[in-house]
Amino acid sequence: MKGKPPPMKDESQLKGEGDRFLMDCIQRGDPAAFQQLVERFTGRLAAYATRRAAGTGIDPEDAVQETFLGLLQSMEKDRHRLGEVRSLEAYLFQILRNKIIDLSAKRPEAHGLRRIPIASEDSDGKVKGHEPIASVGSPSSYLQRDEEAQVRIRILADILDEVVSLLKEEKNFRDLKILELLFLSGLKNRDIAALVGTSEPTVTRAKQDALERLARAAARHPLCGRNSALHDDEVHTSDLIRRVWRQNLISCVKRSTLGAYALGTLERGWKDYIAFHLEHVSCETCAANLEDLQTEGKVNRRRAKERVFASSIGFLRLLGGR
Questions:
Q1: pLDDT digit string (tens) for 100-130?
Q2: What is the mean pLDDT of the chain?
Q3: How far apart are CA 42 and CA 307, in angstroms?
Q4: How many domains are there within the chain?
Q5: Domain shared by 183 and 247, yes or no
Q6: What per-residue confidence (pLDDT) applies to 143?
Q7: Is-contact 67 99, C-beta < 8 A?
Q8: Is residue 29 in some structural domain?
Q9: Do residues 151 and 204 share a domain?
Q10: Are residues 114 and 44 in the same domain?
Q11: What pLDDT shows up at residue 120?
Q12: Less packed terminus of the chain by CB within 10 Å, N or C?
């Protein structure tokens, strides 16, 4: 690689001073900070929920409302939880995905409730009663509790981000496309080669090169002495990479870049890569961001933001009063 990676620092994972400051303010119960969060993310979350919930009977606005409430609830349970989060956007999308799963299964956990252990049942044998979720957690937990697994996931997310960021910096879109398809699609090498417009041996070399880069980056990581992100088992490693890549939006493009793509002002290489990322990688997060950019300012989006803020402000006051 041409670029030299910067030394890794063992610090809070949440990217961006702005995001850290915003979440600190929200943890103190600042309504202006929370409103800023709602204004910033509601549109893209609603676009994503609309796509994912199509045909399920789930109201996308309900799912988004539950997402912001879920964020506040997770902060109320553990004020240090954000120290384990790399990307505020990725964290919100992960909560939303879990909420859609819960809502589609009609689980009370989606609404911050849990079944009472001893309660009456209706004629169908379904438990009637529910009570607020206990502070010990719920089936809809958003971070794994196993500390060792968490360290491994953090290392892997950091080193994937480093490798992908350098590929973007170098505008090496061919290898970036190959890695996305290798780790996210499950396609065979020959099919990947056909989609990218290269040879099968090139795909094989790109994967091996990527794994070597990841291993070198892992060796430099400040936490590598405590754990290892990569395993000898290639199948296990590929599965873990796929999960961490998707959850952390590793190869997703910046919103400003998507805006330039929508306006048709991007240079050819970036334009081609984003089209590939949307069409062949089928990135629903970037598709939702793009859709939101194209519909910004519409009345239904403003209404959704107002509804989310109004429904969550009471819980925010409780958070700030702790």
A1: 988 887 655 455 544 434 344 445 444 344 3
A2: 79
A3: 10
A4: 2
A5: yes
A6: 43
A7: yes
A8: yes
A9: yes
A10: yes
A11: 43
A12: C
What is the dihedral sign for C-alpha 43, 44, 47, 52?
Answer: negative
For residue 128, the tally of other CB atoms under 10 A from its CB is 10
Token pair belonging to 49:
């929920």
161 and 220 together in one domain? yes
Helices (H), the chain: 17-27, 31-52, 60-77, 88-104, 147-170, 173-184, 189-196, 200-220, 234-247, 255-263, 268-279, 284-295, 299-320
- Token match 């925010």: residue? 316
d(CA 291, CA 22): 25
| Domain of residue 89, residue span | 17-118+295-320
Confidence of residue 168 (pLDDT cuts 50, 70, 90): very high
Is residue 131 included in any domain, yes or no? no
Separation of alpha carbons 305 and 310, rounded Å:
9
d(Cα 25, Cα 34) in Å, to the nearest integer?
8
| CB atoms closer than 10 angstroms to residue 243 | 13
Token pair for 152:
């491994």
CA distance 89 to 96: 11
Rounded average pLDDT over 268-291? 95
Dihedral angle over CA of 200, 202, 208, 209, nearest 10: -160
Q: Which two tokens mark 16?
A: 């961006």
Chain center to CA of 46? 15
- 10 Å CB burial of residue 203 (0-12, 13-18, 19+) is buried
φ/ψ of residue 120, rounded to 5: -75, 160
State the average pLDDT over residues 281-310: 84
The first and second tokens of residue 21, run together, are 């400051």
User: Residue 115: phi, psi to the nearest 5?
Assistant: -70, 135
